[in-house]
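Input/output pair, single chain:
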Amino acid sequence: MMQFDWTTFILEILNFLVLVWILHRFLYRPVLAMLDARQQHIKDETLHAEQLRGEAETLRQQYQQRLADWTRRQEDNHHQLQEELAQLRSSALEELKQTLADEETKLQVRNQSLIAARETALVREASSTAYAQAAAMLQRLSSPELTQRIVDVFLEDLNKLPDSESAALRKAASMLIAASAVEVVSAHRLEENLRARLTQALSAAAGQTLPINFKQDSALIAGLRAVIGECQLHANLADELAFFNRQIHHG
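Output:
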């Protein structure tokens, strides 16, 4: 049978109280201090984490804002670039059209010039051929009678000279030196009576007696040419043909 010992009980009580005091003195307070420090550290870390999270959120918003701004600028730049490219294409196209139009105009002008030059060459070639053929035909038809007929017409026209031509003839005659003679060249030999009529008519037209030297040149074909100083009177087929030939070549 178990017996209760008060001494042991009291010693156990004292031992327990000592143990509680020791635990409270050396274990409980450090543990509480460590827990308080740990809790404060956790609070500080949590606060720092909240600050970091806030800063991260601010940076994210700034990044999104910058990204949005960059995207908007990119879109604006892309739109501006498209407009500039469209303007450049339009300007280049207009310039190309103008260049093609200018080249076409130049080509047309060049072609027209070539055609005109070719037509002129053909006309001159045809006129030269016609002149040669007409000269050959007139050479065959030439005769002393034709020259005499032309001289008659020349004498008739000499009496009807316009005032300006008559004044020019008189002026040329007045400038002749004393020993010089008027030259009358005919395609055929002129009879004496015809020479006398020419001398009388030319002297009357010049306003003074003219010494005339008569010559013959078959190149005139038919008719005559009178040379009074600087004044020349043409009444022959060769000079008439040459006149028309010059008009065609310079027309």
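The longest strand covers residues 223-228. The chain has a mean pLDDT of 90.
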